[in-house]
Design goal:
The chain has one domain: TIM Barrel (Alpha-Beta Barrel). 42% of the residues lie in helices and 14% in strands. It has helices spanning 13-17, 27-39, 62-68, 84-92, 106-113, 117-133, 156-169, 185-195, 215-224, 252-261, 270-284, 291-300; strands at residues 8-11, 44-49, 76-80, 97-103, 137-143, 173-178, 204-208, 229-232. It has an eight-stranded parallel barrel with strand order 1-2-3-4-5-6-7-8, surrounded by seven helices. Strand 3 (76-80), helix 4 and strand 4 (97-103) form a beta-alpha-beta unit. The two termini are 31 Å apart. The chain binds 3-hydroxy-3-methylglutaryl-coenzyme A and magnesium ion. 3-hydroxy-3-methylglutaryl-coenzyme A binds at residues 16, 19, 49-52, 55-56, 80, 82-83, 85-86, 101, 112-114, 141, 143, 177, 179, 207, 209, 240-242.
């Protein structure tokens, strides 16, 4: 079994996680969550988005989150941007890295961004050119890579085509999003092998939502195929506002525990990560959705 020595974790809880939590939290709480994640060893954190606040109210004030964060050596804060309007706001807020997103399903593209896949890629080419002008790094997402909430099955060739176009726009990395968490390991394998014919493996990341509890096995398959970047969300926060019923991303705790047990470095301090999870759960009034966090807390309290 071939596996990487280290894995780059991209923590998306403060964006993908919080965007779907119904209880609104202040920019100060969002920034404190990010600071606690940095303290836990996370180096790549998506801290918010510059999308329409009418569409995703929780992400309003992402500029205030960025403004509250201090620069920390080797730590990158990124923000999600859908169009030139969002790009203008990201530049004004001093973002150094952005993430753009397109879908592999037409219906999801319409529901999520009010435009077709082709139109979204046109918008994103303008965003990428503007980012290049400001020397801002651009990461890309493809959504619905293993299934769409409206159209069902998604053809891996379609995912490869969208991923390739994002690669050609200059995205340094393309993250493959199983937005509704329906994929299983064989499908994930077929997907990654197909996309890798168009985009080099070292430009690919995986972004598994955990709706059906398949995110960990799918992550393992991705690692075995040569992918070494994994998106996760502390405490399994979130879901997707345009994918009804979708669960949050795979919990950072789950991935950190699995990789640590396999001798793969992530740089994460699990105890500090648990504290970050407790902090945001307390602010949201939600209960923990990470089995690793639950088990570690139970064993610390003398459970088995
Ligand atoms: P639209 O309504 O088609 O935009 O929304 P528009 O260009 O027609 O403008 C309508 C109004 O929105 C105007 O204001 C614009 O100024 C304003 P008005 O004149 O009515 O007062 N507007 C904006 N305001 C703030 N920021 C902006 C912006 N753009 C326009 N950037 C738009 C199009 C893309 C903006 C909208 O559909 C939107 O915000 N969508 C974002 C949806 C979203 O955030 N989804 C979740 C993130 S994606 C995700 O979670 C998947 C991922 O995790 C990977 C995976 O899991 O698969 C990444
Ligand atoms: Mg997502």
């Amino acid at each position: 079994m071939s596996l990487p020595d280290s894995v780059r974790i991209v923590e998306v809880g403060p964006r993908d996680g919080l965007q779907n939590e119904s209880k609104q939290v202040s920019p100060q709480v969002r920034a404190e969550l990010v600071e606690r994640l940095v303290f836990a060893g996370l180096k790549h954190i998506e801290v918010g988005s510059f999308v329409s606040p009418k569409w995703v109210p929780q992400m309003a004030d992402s500029a205030k989150v960025l403004a509250a964060l201090e620069d920390v050596p080797d730590v990158t804060y990124s923000v999600l941007v859908p169009n030139m309007h969002g790009m203008g706001n990201a530049v004004e807020a001093g973002a150094k890295e952005i993430a753009v997103f397109a879908a592999a399903s037409e219906t999801f593209s319409q529901r999520n961004t009010n435009c077709s896949i082709g139109e979204s890629l046109e918008r994103l080419s303008l965003v990428a050119a503007e980012a290049a002008r400001h020397k801002i790094a651009v990461r890309g997402y493809v959504s619905c890579v293993l299934g769409c909430p409206y159209e069902g099955a998604v053809n891996p060739d379609m995912v490869a085509s969208v991923a390739k176009q994002l690669d050609e726009l200059g995205c340094f990395e393309i993250s493959l999003g199983d937005t509704i968490g329906v994929g299983t390991p064989k499908a994930a394998e077929r997907l990654i092998e197909t996309v890798a014919t168009d985009v080099p493996l070292d430009h690919l990341a995986v972004h598994f939502h955990d709706t059906y509890g398949q995110a960990l096995p799918n992550t393992l398959v991705a690692l075995q195929l040569g992918i070494a970047t994994v998106d996760t969300s502390v405490g399994g926060l979130g879901g997707c506002p345009y994918a009804p019923g979708a669960a949050g991303n795979v919990a950072t705790e789950e991935v950190a525990y699995m990789l640590s047990g396999m001798g793969i470095t992530t740089g994460i301090d699990l105890e500090r990560l648990l504290a970050a999870g407790d902090f945001i759960d307390g602010r949201l009034g939600r209960t923990r959705r990470s089995r690793v966090a639950e088990a570690l807390r139970a064993s610390a309290n003398g459970g088995g």
